[in-house]
Amino acid sequence: MTFVPALHSEWLKIRTLRSLLGALLALFAATTAFSALASADPSETGEPGFDPLYTALSGVMPGQIAAISFGALAVSTEFHSGALRLSLAAVPRRGRWFAAKLTAVAVPVLAVGLVTACASLVVARAGLGDAADGLSVAQQARGVVACGIYFTLMALLAAGLAALLRSGVGALSLLIPFILVVSFVIGDAAGGAVAYLPDRAGQVALHASYEGPLGPWPGLAVTALWTAGVILAGGWRLRHRDA
To answer: Rounded to the nearest 5°, which phi and psi values hold at 81?
Structure first.
C-alpha cells in the first residue's frame, strides 16, 4: 500500500474513535475557556510584566494536555487486541505506516489548534479591553500560528513516546507530570537550562515580549528537536520489535 491510501486508512481510524474526537473537542474547549477566564480579571492588567498576548493564549496550558492525550491515544490503540498486526499486514513497510500515523495525528491537531488559537484570542481580547490594544497584527498572527504548531509538536511528541513505550498510559504518565511538575517546580531550580525544556521553549512564541536565550521561532525549533528525537526513537522501536 502506498502512502496516500495508508494515510486515508489512518485518518478513518481517528474519525471513528470517539475518544480521539473528544480529545480534539477538549483541546478547543479547555484552551478557549481558560483563556477567557485569564483575561476576565482586570486587576492583572496593571501588574509589572503583564503580557496581553500570553494572557490571551494562556489556555494553552490545559489545552496541551488534550493534545498530548490525542497523540498518545492515536498510537497506543494500535497495541490493543493485535490491531498493529492488521495495520502492518496492510502496510508492511513500518516506516511508511508510522509516517502515515504521525501525519494523521498532526493534521487535525494543527487545524484545531489554529482555530482554537483564533477563538481564544478573540474571546480574550474582549475580556482584556484596552489592555490588548498594544498588540500588533504581527504579534497576534505569530501567536496564533505558533499556538497551532506548538499543539501539533506536543501531540507528535506524545505519539512518538507512545510508540517507544508501546503504551499510551506510559506516555501520559511521563509527559503530563513532566509538564505540570518538573517543568514548573524542578525546572525553576535548573537555571537557564529550563528554557530548553520542550514546553518552555515552545511557549516563548506565545509571548508578546520575551527574555532569555531563545526567541519565538528558535524556541519552537527546540521543541521540534525534542519531538524529532522521540519520534526517531519510537520509529526505531517499532522497526525492531515484533507487532
So the answer is: 55, 35
Per-residue pLDDT tens over the stretch 48-98: 567 788 888 989 999 999 999 999 999 988 887 667 777 777 777 888 889
CA distance 162 to 224: 17
Q: How do residues 164-211 score in pLDDT, each as one tens digit?
A: 988 888 899 999 888 877 766 665 555 567 788 898 889 999 988 877
Whole-model pTM?
0.91
Q: Which residues contact 135 (CB under 8 A, 6 or more apart)?
A: 52, 53, 125, 208
Q: How far apart are CA 212 and CA 81, in angstroms?
A: 47
CA–CA gap between residue 1 and residue 90 (Å, rounded): 7
